[in-house]
Inverse folding.
C-alpha cells in the first residue's frame, strides 16, 4: 500500500502583492515629481542667514543682463506691474519672491520693490544660505 500525502505544497508564487506595491510606488513618485518646480534661470543669489516661512504666490527674477521674468516667462519692466495685477489681483496678503542675481545693481531691485509696495504686495528677497 502506497502512502500518499493529502497536503500537497504548490510551487506557485502570487505576484498580486508585488504588483500592488510597484503601482503604489509609481503613483507616489509621479505625484511628488510634479510638486518639485525647478527654476530654469541660473542666478547667483546673494548670501543671507534669515529664513521666512511664507509661501510666495509667484516669483520675479532679474538676470545679470537685466532681463525680467515672472516665473519663467520673460517680460519688460514696463509691463511688469500690469502682468502682476492680472496674475495676482489686489489681495494684500500675497507674497512675491524676488530672485535677483548678485551682480544686479540695487536700483533695479528697488524698482521691483516699488511696484510691489504700490500694489501692497509683500516681497521676499531670495538668498542662498551662508
Amino acid at each position: 500500500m502506497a502512502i500518499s500525502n493529502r497536503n500537497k505544497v504548490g510551487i506557485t508564487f502570487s505576484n498580486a502583492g508585488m504588483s500592488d506595491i510597484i503601482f503604489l510606488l509609481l503613483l507616489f513618485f509621479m505625484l511628488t515629481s510634479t510638486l518639485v518646480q525647478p527654476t530654469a534661470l541660473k542666478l547667483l543669489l546673494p548670501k543671507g542667514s534669515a529664513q521666512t516661512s511664507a509661501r510666495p504666490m509667484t516669483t520675479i527674477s532679474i538676470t545679470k543682463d537685466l532681463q525680467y521674468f515672472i516665473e519663467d516667462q520673460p517680460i519688460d519692466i514696463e509691463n511688469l506691474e500690469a502682468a502682476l495685477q492680472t496674475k495676482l489681483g489686489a489681495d494684500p496678503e500675497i507674497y512675491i519672491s524676488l530672485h535677483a542675481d548678485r551682480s544686479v545693481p540695487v536700483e533695479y531691485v528697488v524698482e521691483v520693490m516699488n511696484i510691489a509696495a504700490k500694489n501692497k504686495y509683500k516681497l521676499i528677497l531670495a538668498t542662498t544660505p551662508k
